Amino acid sequence: MTMAKRDTYTPDSLLAVAVEVFIERGYDGTSMEHLSQAAGISKSSIYHHVRSKEELLRRAISRALDGLFGVLAEPGALQGRAIERLEHVTRRVAEVLMDELPYVTLLLRVRGNTDTERWAMERRREFDHKVSDLLKQAAAEGDLRDDVDIRLATRLLFGMINSIVEWYRPGRGGAVSRDEVAEAVVRTAFSGLRRP
Amino acid sequence: MTMAKRDTYTPDSLLAVAVEVFIERGYDGTSMEHLSQAAGISKSSIYHHVRSKEELLRRAISRALDGLFGVLAEPGALQGRAIERLEHVTRRVAEVLMDELPYVTLLLRVRGNTDTERWAMERRREFDHKVSDLLKQAAAEGDLRDDVDIRLATRLLFGMINSIVEWYRPGRGGAVSRDEVAEAVVRTAFSGLRRP
């Protein structure tokens, strides 16, 4: 039995607590009871904010997806040669991932047992396809190496970007900064680690 | 109640079944009962092969680690300029990951609640450090770009390699081959996706 505290949560602050619990226990392994304990408020207080656990998941995933799809609407993603747009998107996706770390982490871990999870996976695939299309355009414009398959290149690029969630923790003393990480991803992915 | 079949398992074939269950349910979420059901033999038959669930984990992790550390002992990892050794190690680690896919997947997912898991994480860190040392040597020999931090480069390199477990499935029709994947990883990581 947890001492219930006064419910001073906003939709955003309650979501932040829920996302931490989803990441720690897995979405399937999380009950409303777990959320109530983590938030320190009663289940009925939580139901005052949201109708269900799945609504919390949908909101969290939406936040991640809005950030990611937002990148594709930026001027840097729309103007110029495809390779420049691709580098812009890569840098910005890495930044969004770090800025919205728990939300993107959750998006990447979703596996698809509920409607919301299947929708999340579908939207994620859609995003990957848009980036893959950019790679295709860059290849068509002659700016991409032609000895790496486009689908494979897309996967390796996202593999590198997405792996940031495994170790990046904002504000950790002595660690590399967000901008340094984003810059390193762009340099490594497009120009490689070997000195030219 | 599962119909028990005759126990014709070898240590390796029983391990293969256990690893699939560990990956699917998580190591913590797997009981001897789950293993018994998946293998189709009784729990006492399993205890005839191994003393505990943890012994199965240790064997599986050892198999992954033996493969990975084995790469560091290959001539290609020991002779020549550091950048060449690094490229050899990168290619071979990607290959070992694909050849020993379930075992390496399990190694990468281990989080550290038991002695075996902590040992696995320690050995993995040790491996990462050895690769990081190779990067340092390559930098000292002037073959690595100097505008990406070595620790960050190590993380991005492993991020790219390890992400292969998320989508690579051997023998899947129409998919890229193991050799193509390993080659693409080396090209992307060291020379980048941009046409030189």
Instruction: Please report the total strand number of chain A as a whole number.
Output: 0
Which two protein chains have the largest interface (Cβ within 8 Å of the partner's Cβ), and how many residues from each? A-B, 39 and 39 residues
* Number of continuous helical runs of chain A: 10
Quick one: CATH superfamily of the largest domain in chain A? Answer: Tetracycline Repressor, domain 2
**% residues in beta strands of chain A:** under 5%
Biggest β-sheet description of chain A = none
Q: Topology as H/E string of chain A?
A: HHHHHHHHHH
* C-alpha Rg of chain A (nearest Å): 19 Å
- CATH C-level category of the largest domain in chain A: Mainly Alpha
> CATH topology of the largest domain in chain A, what is it called?
Tetracycline Repressor, domain 2
Tally of domains of chain A:
2
Ends apart, CA distance between termini of chain A:
62 Å
What share of residues of chain A is helical? 55-70%
How would you sum up the global shape of chain A?
Answer: elongated
In short:
By secondary structure, chain A is mainly alpha-helical. Chain A contains 10 helices and no strands. At the A-B interface, helix 9 and helix 10 of A face helix 9 and helix 10 of B.
Mind explaining what this structure looks like?
2 copies of one chain form a homodimer. Chain A has 196 residues and is mainly alpha-helical. Chain A folds into 2 domains: 11-50, Orthogonal Bundle (Arc Repressor Mutant, subunit A), CATH 1.10.10.60; 58-191, Tetracycline Repressor, domain 2. Helix content of chain A is 68%, strand content 0%. Chain A has helices at residues 11-25, 32-39, 43-49, 53-72, 75-78, 82-99, 101-109, 115-140, 150-162, 178-191. The relative contact order of chain A is 0.11.
